[in-house]
Specification:
Layout (H helix, E strand, L loop, with lengths): L20 E2 L8 E2 L25 E5 L5 E5 L11 E5 L4 E9 L1 H9 L10 E6 L2 H12 L1 H14 L5 E7 L5 E7 L7 H11 L2 E6 L2 H8 L10 H4 L9 H6 L6 H4 L14 H8 L9 E2 L4 E8 L4 E6 L2 E9 H12 L13 E4 L6 H4 L9
Parallel strand pairs: 4-7, 9-10
Antiparallel strand pairs: 1-2, 3-4, 3-6, 5-6, 5-7, 8-9, 11-12, 12-13, 13-14, 14-15
Amino acid sequence: MEEKTTEHIEPDDFTSRGCCHSEHPGTKPEFGYGCAKMDVYNWLKHVKTPSQDAAYDIVEVRFKNNRKDFFRLPDDMDFQAGDIVAVEASPGHDIGIISAIGEVVKLQIKRKRIQTRPEEFKKVYRKARVSDIEKWALAIRSEEPVMLKTRKISSRLNLNMKINDVEYQGDNTKAIFYYTAEERVDFREMIKVMADEFRVRVEMKQIGVRQEAGRLGGLGTCGRALCCSSWLQDFRAVTTNAARVQQLSMNPQKLAGQCGKLKCCLNFEYDTYVDAVKEFPDPDIRLRTRKGEAIHQKTDIFQKIMWYSYQNDPYNLMAIPLKSVLDIIKQNAKKIYPEQLEDFARVKEVKSGIDSLPEQEDVTRYDGK
């Protein structure tokens, strides 16, 4: 009997599993990887372990989107990162791609604080056969139609929930339905209808709005793919203090991402700003001169410039170097008042008032002379 080939499998079938393309080399399926969100750079690849230590037999396997798990290798087979494998599942087996192998997996387990003993991890059964991959491809193709049908079922049952994604198990016997909901949902009747309709074991899993945005994808205001859908896996809490420290305008429309929460990228440079702002004085401190008191307007942290304006003339801003500001504060503490701030200003800026707003809204302001 001739062995089946993978000629009918489309290259884009496996993009949701982290494969940027797929090859068709006849009877030996080899799927490209390297551009996936869940790929792992093995920085310990060229570090040799002591000869008396056995190779670490736990591997990290990736599935759809950001789902990963750890599995124990059999003793009689050789595996590499990128191999498509059949792994133990409940029930049946699942198909995944090995994303990391060796000592780096031990560090991943330690970082995630997994307390499972090595012998208690689920097993890797074998490298996936051609028949396994064909069944896997059919399961992947059915995910989107099933998701659309499930949305119609939830709407018909008047359930206040949103089905975001569906992930079929590799052997096509089980499906995980990811959903978001603002309150608790009783979906027992829905599960019965789905089980009869799709003939698979149904598992419902609730996710947050950040995870929903990561699964759906899209473009951010920066013009690039959303971080949560392209590379970000660990979601940290984002507070408005991160925006305040970075001197950003407290505009909810600009600070919120597509998920409706504060943008994750507000945390990227937060620590740098926290360290840099330590050498700046309290912005509530007023600079006193013989010409009048000056109040703080804004700060350019990395150029070490603070912008001040006189209290009776708030639209005329002056850029004062940080060193000069600290000197003026020290002089004020000794009851010494400089003649005027203009003597220390590096740049003088006229702040536009309300009268100039109609002119700013005119699209011709972008035209050159």
